[in-house]
Amino acid sequence: MTKFEIRGVRADVLIGAEEREEILKGVDLTINSGETHAIMGPNGSGKSTLAYAIAGHPKYEITAGEVLLDGENVLEMSVDERARAGLFLAMQYPVEVPGVSMSNFLRSSVTAVRGEAPKLRAFSKELQQAMGGLAIDSSFAARGVNEGFSGGEKKRHEILQLELLKPKIAILDETDSGLDVDALKVVSAGINRARETNDVGVMLITHYTRILNYVRPDYVHVFAGGRIAESGGPELADRLESEGYERFVKAGAGQ
Amino acid sequence: MASPNLGIREHSHGAGEIPISRLDVHGSFDPQSFPVPTGREEEWRFTPLRRLRGLHDGRTIADGVVGVEIQAPGEVRVERVDRDDPRVGASFLPNDRVSALAWDSFPQFGQANVITVPKGTEAGAPVFVKATGTTHGDAYGHLVVRAEPQSSATVVLEYAGSAVYADNVEFVVEDGASLTVVSLQDWDRDAVHVSHQFATVGRDARFRSFVVTLGGDLVRLSPSVRYVGTGGDAELHGLYYTGKGQHHEHRSLIDHNESNTRSRVEYKGALSGEDAHAVWIGDVIIGEGTSGTDSYEHNRNLVLTDGTRVDSVPNLEIFTGEVEGAGHASASGRLDDIHLFYLQSRGIPADEARRLVIRGFFQELINRIEVAELRERIMAEVEEKLASHE
Ligand SMILES: Nc1ncnc2c1ncn2[C@@H]1O[C@H](COP(=O)(O)OP(=O)(O)OP(=O)(O)O)[C@@H](O)[C@H]1O
Ligand SMILES: [Mg+2]
Fold this sequence. Notes:
The complex is a heterodimer. Chain A is an alpha/beta fold. Chain A contains nine helices and twelve strands. Chain A has helices spanning 47-55, 79-85, 102-114, 120-133, 151-165, 181-198, 210-214, 235-243, 246-253; strands at residues 3-14, 20-32, 36-40, 60-69, 72-73, 87-90, 97-101, 144-145, 169-173, 201-205, 219-224, 227-232. In chain A, β9, α6 (181-198) and β10 form a beta-alpha-beta unit. The longest helix of chain A has 18 residues, at 181-198. In chain B, β2 and β3 (16-19) form a beta hairpin. Chain B has helices at 97-105, 337-344, 350-366, 372-388; strands spanning 5-6, 10-13, 16-19, 65-71, 77-81, 112-117, 127-135, 138-147, 152-161, 164-173, 178-187, 192-201, 206-213, 218-227, 233-242, 247-256, 262-271, 277-286, 293-303, 309-318, 323-333. Chain B has two domains: 11-334, no CATH class; 336-390, no CATH class. Helix content of chain B is 13%, strand content 45%. By secondary structure, chain B is mainly β. In chain B, the strands form three sheets. Chain B has a ten-stranded mixed beta sheet with strand order 1-20-18-16-14-12-10-8-6-5, with helices on one face. A nine-stranded mixed beta sheet of chain B has the order 4-7-9-11-13-15-17-19-21, covered by helices on one side. The complex binds adenosine-5'-triphosphate (ATP) and magnesium ion. Chain B: It comes from Streptomonospora mangrovi. Chain B: Residues 138-361 form the SUF system FeS cluster assembly SufBD core domain. Chain B: InterPro entries: Fe-S_cluster_assembly_SufBD, SUF_FeS_clus_asmbl_SufBD_core, SUF_FeS_clus_asmbl_SufBD_sf, SUF_FeS_clus_asmbl_SufD.
């Protein structure tokens, strides 16, 4: 049983050498293993900022508050330590790393997270199976990390990593954006496998209720103006779908 | 750092100012036609002349020893011939003083090596040419590789040991032939090497070069390509890892003097350590009256520590409106933070992430070398350098 706590987090985006801007204005959220929290909110409200700041992206800095994973201070950890502690971020825009092959990358990361190198044969079987489950062609293993992948292919590979790394807490930032109808089902099934087999706690950032039909959330939060503006059950998603964010944007406009 | 020039650029060369497009015309086998460089000349300004140990002024005491061994499959002819053999010096004119001095001096060290891939022959295995310096003094060499019409072969030049060495290498790729060259500068740390590699590419012929420079105190290598028929295709790939105190200079010249020719130049290097200095000069000329030229050149430098210096200068001279495509790019910088972040966000520790990205930077290029054992060796040596600079 894992408890992931975000308490009073404020964060800046680092723009230039001197320039920065506060984006997160006090975020509170607790996620327990097995729970799925959907985060919905207008463009530019800071959802990705929250995800990146928690992962330790060099362009963001948390200026106040704390992030705890089973009581451990995540913010004192380096980026890789956070991942090894059990945090995972599927990025809205996965990064291309030319020249580093996907298979080499996956083997290195699995080795790092599990603390020992998996047996070659067993790993290649595991990889093959995981790729098959996400309808990823085996030829991708030889390509550079995300290099020249289409938007949807990148998203599938993020979920491939989710399945291989078996984190305690997964933050999925718009994993559903840019997926065709079939891919959405395939990717949702991957997320659900991770929920069932590892009891992972999920923060699912999305703009669409469509994915929520496949990956049922336990809670839905509205993110606006750099904080959580309202929380509710799955029914809140439907209400947002029909009403939009107008009342939250207005409420947040003054700050 | 990178200052791309477009249009006619004057080079200072001897008495008069001439554009790079006239260099070959002004070549000469006589060292006396080239004044001793002072370091102010355009083509010498990046080279620390003192560290040439006399190769440029004509020390020619010839007290060094460099042995050359050649291993070739049966279908490839290997000969040692005198300088007056008609096949020697037929495809080039020295275009600087060191090249002319090497021409002048190599007979003191024996004969020229001539490797011939006969007409229509596909060499079943690579030809290995290994030059090993055993005595650190000045030494000179000359090599001719001829790929006769419709033949194909891979030649691996390997330089090792310790020497102060200047050589001219002629690659003659005749009509419809295909020649791949890997030139591995794997010298001991105190070696000095100035090399000119002249490729002549015939009609519909294909030349591919992989220059890998890892060793030496100073290596200055000038690969040039000239076309003698239409439809020629040349690719020059380069890789260097310039460590503490090393000077690695690569100066390519592609002369698109025929129509419908293609060239690609891609040089990539990493620098680490105090006073590591890498120079890349990429000259491309698209000649008057030609059409259908397709040319692109690219230099990338990965700066791994403080205290290094990169000079990267692409030059493109176009004398015709009928160009299919011509471009250049040059970029030097640190490892990308965001690349490292992505790898680390998957649990990979920072130093390993760095190594993966650097390895990846080189791997792209190394993977294109078709000789498997060489790929592994080069990667292993890059790894070794990586490890020693951390
Ligand atoms: N380098 C930057 N300079 C200025 N503003 C920035 C910079 N980087 C991010 N921001 C701003 O931070 C705000 C929050 O961005 P963020 O990506 O977190 O939004 P989001 O909620 O994920 O939006 P979306 O739904 O469109 O993905 C945006 O207004 C964005 O413009
Ligand atoms: Mg976003």
